[in-house]
Amino acid sequence: MSEVFTKNHIKINLDLKDKDAYFRYIAKLSIELGIGKEEQGVYEGLVSREKEFATNLGDGIAIPHTKSDYIIKPAILILKPQKEVSWGNDTEEDVRIIISILSFNEQGGNTHLELLASLARKLVDEKFKNALVNSVDEEGIFFLIEQALHS
Question: What confidence score (pLDDT) does residue 107 get?
Fold first, then answer.
């Protein structure tokens, strides 16, 4: 899974305006890292998925994701805002960490589901979840996500 997630995929201390700005940042970052091939297409994939089903899991965690023809290779991006971000309406809990899963459309493949399942299994563990949400450095976040992907 090392190509799917590297330390370059972690961005901390971000100060963006709102959820939409984070979607645009993810799309731009995907191009910079060679994950996506067209920024607007990646952005629209994230927005479209969010409209189908909200990605705010609660407990300060959002998992915006897309499976798109605009993704060249699957990846996980971790974004850590400086301050909590509103991720929906007033009843939803604000987000403290963003875990974005980007996957390409593949015939008969299940990379997207495998990545999501790996993270979901660990995110039910309260100790893991709290450590991830409260981590403020790249090394700590990298260790926790690697642990989740290899468990």
Answer: 62
- Sheet strands (E) in the chain: 10-14, 56-58, 61-62, 65-68, 75-81, 97-104
Smallest CA-to-CA distance from 129 within 74, 44, 69, 59 is with 59
Question: Taking the model in full, what pTM does it have?
Answer: 0.92
C-beta separation of 76 from 2 below 8 A: no
DSSP string over 95-109: BSEEEEEEEE--SS-
Q: Give the dihedral sign, CA 69/71/73/75.
A: negative
Euclidean distance between CA atoms 45 and 67, whole angstroms:
7
Three-state secondary-structure class, residue 139? helix
Token reading at 111 = 């990379």
pLDDT digits (tens, 9 = 90+) for 72-93: 999 999 999 999 999 986 677 8
Angle at the Cα of 86 from the Cα atoms of 85 and 88, rounded to 5 degrees: 145
Residues 128 and 48: their CA atoms lie apart, in Å, by 29
